[in-house]
Amino acid sequence: MSSQDIPEENLPAERADEHGHGAVAVANEDNPFADPGLPPHEHRIQDIDERAAKRSERVVAMLFTLSMLATVAFIASYVTIPNDKSIFVFPLGHISALNFALGMTLGVALFAIGAGAVHWARTLMSDVEIADERHPIEAEPEVKAKVLADFKQGAKESALGRRKLIRTTMFGALALFPLSGVMLLRDLGPLPGTKLRHTIWSKGKLLVNVNTNEPLRPSDIAVGSLTFVKPEGLEENDEDFQQEIAKAAVMIVRLQPDNIKDKRELAWSHEGIVAYSKICTHVGCPISLYEQQTHHVLCPCHQSTFDLSDGARVIFGPAGHALPQLRIGVNDEGYLEALGDFDEPVGPAFWERG
Fold it and tell me: Basic and acidic residues bias: where (predicted)?
């Protein structure tokens, strides 16, 4: 149906020169570059037929509703589809089912919002071209009043207040879509839980020399020597070796029992053999330097220094607290073993430290 098929009385009232449509300036010697004006405005079917406008309104609402459904499907896919599930998609081949579902639902949600907005603008919002003269950069009171009037006119012509179905579904689509981004934040990594507070050390685990991969007896540790150990059962070819050794690395030093000043340190040692975390409490560097005469260990990164004869307290450097001590003993076979886990988190301080 064209505007020619509509009786004249049903057409919107509009003068030919109201917006400059149909008004043509004639070029002459005084004005060789006359403004040709705007072409005559042609009304859309939605402008003259309310039934067509209702159809367009339903299409826009359907697209916004589709966006809401796609957002819900995105969240459901993220929650229910396993990470290791794969599907065959021609011509891509075997791909991750989760990635495919997330990409499709997110794409549909975005496309539906965009398509709904475009269809709304092209079929229901006003399409009358308006020529506006340039004005000075400074905002005069008259200009401010005109901008406000134009804004109100645009809001009126958008029919947002009258098209309640479009307004409701658009707000629903825009409100639900950000939930997709919130769900993606969950994929930044698994929640740490209590993993930062504990290591794989436990009662009965043998102290194994990291160089020989053999358990140690007290007689293997000489006075003044520094030895690095790991928990029994932790092997370098394990998938989580680096993650676990980063918390469970331990150094053992044998001191004369008379030289140990801290009572708890002495009680948690065995015949002067003390076991402390190798991870510096400043930024987590591995401690590797030992001064035999002073019983001090030094972190090579920022020179934090700890006194192993006095509870491994900090005597120099930026470290904030002492090295955690591992309580050790000897099993029935004469091998050194742990009597439990560290009683505090190892490594640098963190906000959850208790």
Answer: 12-21
Exposure of 318 by Cβ count < 10 A (0-12 exposed, 13-18 middle, 19+ buried)?
middle
Q: Which amino acid is at 18?
A: E
Q: How many CB atoms lie within 10 A of CB 80?
A: 9
Q: What is the 3-state secondary structure (H, E, C) of 185-217?
A: HHHHCCCCCCCCCCCCCCCCCEEEECCCCCECC
**pTM recorded for the entire structure:** 0.51
The residue that leads in pLDDT, 352 or 128, is 128
9 has a pLDDT exceeding 60:
no
The pLDDT tens digits for 190-211 are 776 777 788 999 999 999 999 9
Residue 214, amino acid: E
Q: What are the residue boundaries of the structural domains of the chain, listed by start? A: 3-188, 207-338
Q: Which of 228, 255, 233 is nearest to 244 (CA)?
A: 233
* 37: CB partners within 8 A, 6+ apart: 20, 21, 22, 23, 24, 25
pLDDT tens column, 164-196: 888 889 999 999 988 888 877 777 777 767 777
Tokens at 6, concatenated? 């509509």
Rounded to whole angstroms, the Cα distance separating 172 from 166 reads: 10
Grouping H, G, I as helix, E, B as strand and the rest as coil, residue 223 is strand
> Hey, what's the torsion of the CAs at 272, 276, 280, 285, to 10 degrees?
100
User: Which pLDDT tens digit goes with each residue over 226-283?
Assistant: 999 999 999 888 888 888 898 999 999 999 999 999 999 999 999 999 999 999 999 8
Query: How many beta carbons lie within 10 A of that of residue 353, not counting itself?
Result: 12
**pLDDT (mean) for 145-150:** 89
How open is the CA angle 229-233-237, to the nearest 5 degrees? 90
**Pick from 352, 10, 41: which is nearest to 195 by CA?**
352
Peptide bond into 91 cis (omega under 30): yes
CA distance 249 to 37: 82
Q: Pairing mode, if any, of strands 273-277 and 325-326?
A: antiparallel
Tokens of 353: 């430290």
Residue type, 206: L
